[in-house]
Amino acid sequence: MKIFSRTVLRGRAAALVGLSALFGTLGMAGPAAPAAQAAPAPPHFANGFGLTVISQPKWADGKRRTFTFKVTSDQVPAYSVLPGQVSGEHTVMVTLPTGYNGAAATRYPVNYTLHGAPEYPDALRNKVITERATEGVPLITVTPNGGGRGWYANWVNPGGLGRQNWETFHLNQVIPLIDANLKTIPTRAGRAISGHSMGGFGAFHYAEHRPDLFSYVGSFSGDLDFNPEMRAAVVGSALLPAYGKPTVAPDAVFGSPVWPLDGVWNAQSAAQHVRSLRGMGVAMYAGDGGNLTVDPVLAVAENRVRQTAVTAAFHLRAEGIPYRFADYRDGSRWGKGCNGKHSQQACLQADMDDFVKLIMKRFTRS
């Protein structure tokens, strides 16, 4: 389980700001006690859909709710790695509901939640946030590898890395693999997608491209509008080693960010293309950074991503699409310990707690 460092958080935020602006008890003497039952094994995964399982699921700890496994994909055969990662090996983290039984008839809805940049899918805080938000909830949560700078997109100019089709990897490979190997509800009515920061963009991006797959979408301080500040953040993530090695060209992901060559950026900016979300549940969460003189890099970063949610809300209203925008400002009334900074665990916990309640209401009605 990866520990998510505060230095990494600052690296992501600094790119945005700097370029434009994370049993038993002993028995008494008597008859011999029966042998202890073996701990339940995590589910076994079979290959398929262009994915090869190179490491079978392993429990993250003794609670036996969360496991990780590794795959290789023909859509992202190599990528820029963070320390400890192996290029081409993709970790997927899954949290199961308490009492999950692969041999039983019960099926569960799934929330696919996408991590930020630069972050590991199995970062300890991701596990903690998910397990706390879903305690006692009949919901499976899946966090796939998005790379330190994958941006949940099929790259325009991947260069020497080769194919970087992150969107195809997740939507056409990971989702059907999960449905084939776990007791899911394998329909739109049984799926939600959410994400933080880069992952918030990814969640909206995927939901807009494939509304047939998801019934609810959530952005936690997501980079929803590719305005000049967010373009600087993406370009910065391409150039800075903190987001993975090797670094890549500034136009690798979405092409040139400069007009009139910025057509892909305009086409993929999530805030302006919400029409396909009609009929889907939509939720956005953001703070305003609180006191901008305290932890100013993360404060300003959150302040600016909040503006992208404001832009998305404008377009949602224009389309007549209902949405929830938890605009929690300095966080003092949102979650214990939340002070409105970017990528703060206390704020993200409150975001996920709220989102899980929303999606379970919809799943219960379906």
What are its keywords?
single chain, alpha/beta, nine-stranded mixed sheet, 16% strand, globular
Question: What does this 3D model show about the protein?
Answer:
- The protein has helices at 6-19, 124-133, 166-181, 198-209, 228-239, 263-268, 296-319, 345-365, and strands at residues 51-59, 66-73, 90-95, 110-114, 140-144, 191-196, 216-220, 281-287, 324-329.
- With 366 residues, it is α/β, with parallel strands linked by helices.
- It has a single domain, classed as 3-Layer(aba) Sandwich (Rossmann fold), CATH 3.40.50.1820.
- Strands 1-2-3-5-4-6-7-8-9 form a nine-stranded mixed beta sheet, sandwiched between helices.
- The longest helix is centred in the C-terminal third of the chain and has 24 residues, at 296-319.
- The chain is globular.
- Mean pLDDT is 92; it is low at 14-30.
Write the layout of secondary structure elements.
Blueprint: H1 6-19, E1 51-59, E2 66-73, E3 90-95, E4 110-114, H2 124-133, E5 140-144, H3 166-181, E6 191-196, H4 198-209, E7 216-220, H5 228-239, H6 263-268, E8 281-287, H7 296-319, E9 324-329, H8 345-365
Parallel strand pairs: 4-5, 4-6, 6-7, 7-8, 8-9
Antiparallel strand pairs: 1-2, 2-3, 3-5
